Amino acid sequence: MRRKILVLMAVFIGFCSLIYLYTFLHEGGHALVAMLGGGKVEEFVLGVNAHVRVSGTAFTPFWEALFHAAGVLLPVIILLMALLFYRPQIKKGFYHVFYIAIWLCITGSLWAWVVIPLVTLFATGPAYDDTIKFLRVTGFHPLIVASAAILMMGMLFLLAKKKGLFKKTGELMRSWKETRREGEGGPKFIFPSQPRFPPAHTGRPGRHRSLRPPRILSTGPGYAGSC
């Protein structure tokens, strides 16, 4: 029970840390472009309600489009660089778990740039979303943006596969399953309450002779008899 509680706590802490790390990269991308464009970061909030507020910007259409896309571009660039330095031969399990978690988080965030542009073909998307703002500023067709996001996901997938991230993750999962199975199960020994000897055939049908050793009766010194 205590071990399960520790595992749940570790998963919860890891999940929260992952959220803060991703929002730092996401909002950091917006803030970086804003500062490069001559603006000033007034507010930088991480977590579930993550956002960044900037002032003093005089964006051209290019810089404004880059500002809206930087929230997903910076995490993708960081992930690409991290995958180049990935080493599957490292034995620490946490190292590989961290890599696959970051890969899933950043690659999964690209789905917004696939789904939302496709939604705009039939309905109005959320006005506050970076994808909608990017489409409005650039005037790109939604299918172009969705295709670009799919290409980036494919690039991240192929690079992770080439570096051995998926193979190593599969090996770790199989190893953990075997360890858990051995911990829960294990050999079980059943001891009978009374030892029994198999009967020996005497040569006559229906008659068996017991292999139980004969009892030795002692009636005095120097005498032994059996019955």
From TrEMBL:
Alphabetical keyword list: Membrane, Transmembrane, Transmembrane helix
Transmembrane segments annotated in the record for this chain: 5-25, 65-86, 98-119, 139-160
Pfam families: Peptidase_M50B (PF13398)
InterPro entries tied to this protein: Peptidase_M50B-like
Region (Disordered): 198-227
Protein name: M50 family metallopeptidase
Organism this protein belongs to: Capillibacterium thermochitinicola
